[in-house]
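Sequence, please.
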């Protein structure tokens, strides 16, 4: 079969909130597409069109697709790009057109499926796509059409391990164009945060050796010195993260890594090991300092003590702790937002992120805002939340205030990191010293 995989972020780089310096524009390596390409390429003729990295217009992408004349077309989409993807695939003469959507909460976007023959759902969409390509017209775990009606086939039972996703074929991608590299060591999350599209999706690990093979290829063949794990939370399973760290340490791999994690899923011994394996940054979703908002509304189920301890342990072992806060959650108000800012100040994290809630369709929080007609547009984000106490302008102003208060503190905390022998050693050993120094300099002059 001839297959085209399209990265859908058309004419738009991924924008990342650089903690206290606004948005930076980056081209991210699409690791999900990479893993899918690895699965399909052995038995098929596969090409990748990364419209984001190559800065291609939708029209140009259509031209490339037409020229290749594929049997199967797969778009790597998000809820922000699904409309453009739909335009790209519209009227194309392919036998099968699939929407590859990395998140779980796809059902709420059903009205946008009309130009796609198949929309896999669940954690193992790659397997569903593989079955479709092999000729199964009604595989488990997907939406498809029957007599003009959209039907949902029965869910796929999660595998115990994702051993079918082998090494990413990096040679198929324009590797020189990416600013940031992602690697996936597991999929899904069993926790229940009400704003999160991954909530209650289960958890499946990849084979640790294959993951570290990818790190090794990135380091040795493409001189990548820093990667981010794409896992929703890196330390959901203690044995998995320990194995991952041990494998990196055993291979003496000189690569630094970042990841998201939960404050209740780490301990001092684990952070020590993570640090030894090259971890330089762990980000904790705190979301709100107010216990009721954090644990009753968001259902984060983490205590303040766990958060404080996690930040302390990271600092002690040369890992930069980052905390994420969300403004505008249900019941949030000026007082609770000031508590958020104060907590971040007191913990002294060198990096942090204050975001305005951007409810994702299909999540519990989205329904909350939607029922109350409290969704609105802000900047380039199609949906943003507000609540009874705070309108969107007030939220924007609180966000600005948070950064203006925290920016000087962040500089002080960043400079303090220079005293951290473990961190400096790690950066120098892994050839990241100059990069980090440049970042610090950028902070000082911005
Ligand atoms: S926010 Fe993190 S812990 Fe909560 S459900 Fe999502 S991935 Fe899991």
């Amino acid at each position: 079969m001839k297959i085209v995989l399209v990265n859908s972020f058309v004419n738009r780089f991924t924008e990342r909130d650089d903690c206290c310096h606004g948005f930076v524009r980056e081209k991210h390596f699409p690791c999900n597409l990479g893993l899918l390409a690895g699965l399909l390429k052995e038995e098929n003729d596969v090409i990748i069109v990364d419209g984001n990295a190559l800065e291609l217009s939708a029209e140009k992408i259509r031209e490339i697709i037409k020229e290749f004349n594929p049997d199967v077309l797969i778009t790597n989409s998000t809820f922000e790009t699904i409309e453009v993807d739909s335009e790209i695939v519209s009227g194309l003469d392919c036998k099968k057109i699939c929407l590859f959507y990395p998140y779980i909460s796809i059902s709420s976007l059903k009205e946008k499926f009309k130009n796609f023959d198949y929309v896999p759902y669940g954690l193992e969409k790659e397997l569903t796509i593989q079955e479709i390509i092999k000729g199964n017209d009604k595989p488990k775990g997907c939406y498809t059409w029957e007599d003009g009606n959209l039907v949902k086939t029965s869910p796929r039972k999660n595998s115990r391990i994702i051993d079918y996703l082998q090494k990413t074929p990096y040679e198929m991608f324009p590797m020189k164009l990416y600013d940031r590299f992602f690697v996936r060591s597991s999929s899904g999350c069993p926790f229940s945060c009400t704003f999160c599209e991954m909530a209650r999706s289960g958890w499946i690990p990849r084979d640790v050796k294959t993951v570290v093979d990818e790190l090794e290829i990135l380091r040795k063949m493409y001189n990548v010195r820093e990667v981010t794990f794409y896992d929703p939370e890196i330390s959901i399973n203690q044995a998995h993260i320990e194995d991952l760290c041990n494998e990196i340490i055993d291979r003496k791999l000189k690569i630094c890594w970042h990841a998201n994690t939960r404050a209740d899923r780490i301990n001092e011994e684990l952070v020590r090991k993570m640090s030894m394996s090259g971890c330089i940054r762990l980000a904790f979703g705190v979301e709100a300092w107010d216990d009721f908002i954090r644990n009753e509304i968001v259902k984060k189920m983490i205590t303040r003590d766990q958060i404080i301890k996690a930040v302390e342990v990271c600092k002690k072992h040369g890992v930069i702790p980052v905390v994420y806060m969300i403004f505008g959650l249900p019941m949030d108000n000026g007082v609770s937002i000031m508590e958020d800012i104060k907590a971040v100040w007191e913990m002294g994290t060198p990096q942090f992120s204050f975001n305005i809630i951007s409810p994702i369709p299909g999540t519990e929080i989205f329904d909350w805002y939607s029922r109350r007609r409290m969704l609105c547009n802000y900047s380039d984000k199609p949906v943003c939340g507000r609540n009874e106490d705070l309108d969107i302008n007030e939220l924007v102003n609180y966000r600005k205030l948070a950064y203006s208060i925290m920016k000087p503190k962040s500089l002080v905390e960043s400079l303090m990191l220079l005293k951290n022998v473990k961190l400096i050693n790690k950066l120098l050993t892994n050839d990241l010293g100059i990069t980090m120094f440049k970042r610090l300099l950028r902070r000082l002059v911005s």
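Residues 189, 191, 193, 196, 198-199, 232-233, 262, 285 surround iron/sulfur cluster (CB under 6 Å).
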